[in-house]
């Protein structure tokens, strides 16, 4: 692991703690934006630029603006302290959850492991060999998403559609109705 | 809460700074072009409909922050984002149903080559990415307007 990756990782953990511990909501939103942006950088390090682009655009961009818009309309009392008083019970539950989730880490292959199922699986090899010939598309990720797994992507679009329309109906009724 | 803070809270997020207005005016066409590029070029490099749609939606957010959300909403209209969402979803659906009508599987783009479209699967994929982009851009702008409109409603909203 290079020093650059290490420092980005440290930034992620720091920003995550800051998001949870900062008392002022505005500060938390800014820390959350920094967290999303550093996660996006990590995705690029892990050779997943498509996911990184999504994280940067949605997590760091749109979400921050929507959060800021929302807290503008709330009353924000003067904050006398910078950090939240830490609730030990809640911190214990969070720590336990992190430990349980970390136990799955050992089951994952190392990053870039040539023998992992991700790299030498039949399905992966089929996509990498035939994606360009069959779909005329150079980006194998897009070929899988839109052509081989087009039906799944349509389901995803339908989920986004229904969630968005449902939210708009509810919010507009709250505001105008 | 002091008087000045109350005024800021009532007036919403709009500050009307000439610096922001000038910057947005210059940057906006480039961001819009970049969003379309990410949408269309998702076939050959990283990107795609979801990412491109968000970037195109960002253009409206920038306009709202620079020139006032109310003004932008009056200019764009509240119906257009919803119409875009529906249009994108229908375009995606009919691309799939069209290939079934032409005798192939659902969303099997290659069959559109029979209609004389060159590189049918490539353009089919790009068309679907554009449809996804419409859905996402519409939802981003619609949510932005809906959440911002809540500031008018006073304490109860």
TrEMBL record, chain A:
Localization annotation: Cell membrane
Residue ranges crossing the lipid bilayer per the database entry: 6-22, 29-46, 52-72, 93-112, 158-176
Keyword set, alphabetical order: Cell membrane, Membrane, Transmembrane, Transmembrane helix, Transport
GO CC annotations on file: plasma membrane
MrpA C-terminal/MbhE domain: residues covered: 119-173
Membrane protein topology class: Multi-pass membrane protein
Highest taxon of the lineage: Archaea
Annotated Gene3D superfamilies: NADH-ubiquinone/plastoquinone oxidoreductase chain 6, subunit NuoJ
MrpA C-terminal/MbhD domain mapped to chain residues: 10-74
One protein family per Pfam: MbhD
Record NCBIfam families: PRK12504.1
The protein's name: Multicomponent Na+:H+ antiporter subunit B
Source organism per UniProt: Halolamina pelagica
From TrEMBL, chain B:
Keywords of this entry: Cell membrane, Membrane, Transmembrane, Transmembrane helix
Gene Ontology cellular component annotations, sorted alphabetically: plasma membrane
Entry superkingdom: Archaea
InterPro entries, per the entry: CPA3_antiporter_subunitB (IPR050622), MnhB (IPR007182)
Compartments where located: Cell membrane
The Na+/H+ antiporter MnhB subunit-related protein domain, residue ranges: 19-141
Topology in the lipid bilayer: Multi-pass membrane protein
Pfam families: MnhB (PF04039)
Segments passing through the bilayer: 20-43, 49-69, 81-107, 127-149
Protein name, per record: Multicomponent Na+:H+ antiporter subunit B
């Amino acid at each position: 692991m290079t020093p650059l990756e290490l420092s980005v990782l440290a930034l992620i953990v720091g920003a995550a703690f800051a998001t949870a511990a900062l008392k002022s909501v505005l500060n938390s939103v800014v820390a959350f934006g920094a967290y999303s942006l550093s996660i996006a950088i990590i995705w690029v390090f892990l050779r997943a630029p498509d996911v990184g682009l999504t994280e940067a655009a949605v997590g760091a961009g749109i979400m921050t603006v929507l959060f800021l818009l929302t807290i503008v309309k709330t009353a924000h009392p003067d904050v006398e302290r910078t950090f939240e008083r830490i609730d030990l019970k809640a911190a214990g539950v969070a720590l336990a959850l992190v430990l349980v989730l970390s136990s799955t880490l050992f089951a994952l292959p190392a990053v870039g492991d040539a023998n992992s199922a991700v790299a030498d699986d039949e399905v992966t090899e089929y996509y990498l060999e035939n994606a360009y010939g069959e779909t005329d598309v150079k980006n194998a990720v897009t070929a899988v998403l839109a052509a081989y797994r087009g039906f799944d992507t349509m389901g995803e679009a339908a989920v986004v559609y229904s969630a968005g329309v449902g939210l708009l109906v509810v919010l507009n009724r709250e505001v105008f109705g | 809460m002091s008087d000045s803070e109350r005024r800021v809270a009532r007036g919403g997020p709009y500050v009307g700074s000439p610096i922001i207005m000038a910057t947005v005016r210059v940057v906006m066409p480039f961001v819009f072009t970049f969003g379309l590029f990410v949408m269309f070029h998702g076939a050959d490099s990283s990107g795609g409909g979801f990412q491109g749609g968000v970037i195109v939606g960002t253009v409206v957010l920038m306009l709202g922050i620079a020139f006032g959300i109310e003004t932008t909403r009056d200019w764009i209209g509240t119906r257009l984002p919803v119409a875009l969402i529906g249009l994108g979803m229908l375009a995606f659906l009919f691309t799939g149903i069209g290939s079934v009508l032409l005798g192939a599987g659902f969303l099997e783009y290659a069959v559109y080559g029979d209609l004389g479209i060159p590189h049918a699967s490539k353009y089919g994929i790009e068309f679907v990415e554009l449809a996804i982009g419409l859905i996402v851009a519409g939802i981003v702008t619609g949510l932005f307007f809906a959440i911002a409109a809540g500031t008018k409603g006073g304490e109860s909203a």
